[in-house]
């Protein structure tokens, strides 16, 4: 006598296919760094425009030579422009009174005048009650005749640009690291089920990628 085995009825439950992380996450991961770089470029350009517009109003003279101008109380900054090499600066005020000059190591600043780059080299103070005509005498040389000289202005370009560069660096850091984090977050979540060594490697790779992107942006913008 043959035995017929009953076949199970119904359709077996269909397995849902495994779906990996959505590629849509790469859209904000790419757009965030690009938006940060674009915003940093606009920020830097606006800062340079503001500096150049202010620097156009500086008082200028030859090196060697003397600048004579009416100055009011405040801190005045000295700039060597173009091919000028300034060795010493002497400042005398009304009645021949000498004003102390603080010379500093040349600091490259973000403005050009007439195609000449500028370096901030020192400063001096005009004290309250001592306003009047001052003579700023510079000794030194100019590499090419008429190409550069000494500039005096009541504006520290280096002091103005320092917070601008820090702000741009912070903007790039936030945007680039956020984009990298969005891109690698699913991989990090999956790595939690793996060994500690794998998780450490993923973290190192993420940090290295963010650092490389940030350094590339710094080099592109000339921040340093």
Explain this structure to me?
With 224 residues, this protein is of the alpha+beta class. It is built from 3 helices and 9 strands. The chain has helices at residues 26-55, 157-191, 196-221; strands at residues 59-61, 65-71, 74-82, 84-92, 98-99, 101-113, 116-126, 132-142, 148-153. It starts with 25 loop residues before the first helix and ends with a helix.
Short description:
The chain is of the alpha+beta class. The chain has helices at 26-55, 157-191, 196-221; strands spanning 59-61, 65-71, 74-82, 84-92, 98-99, 101-113, 116-126, 132-142, 148-153. It has 2 domains: 24-50 and 160-221, no CATH class; 59-154, Jelly Rolls (Sandwich), CATH 2.60.120.
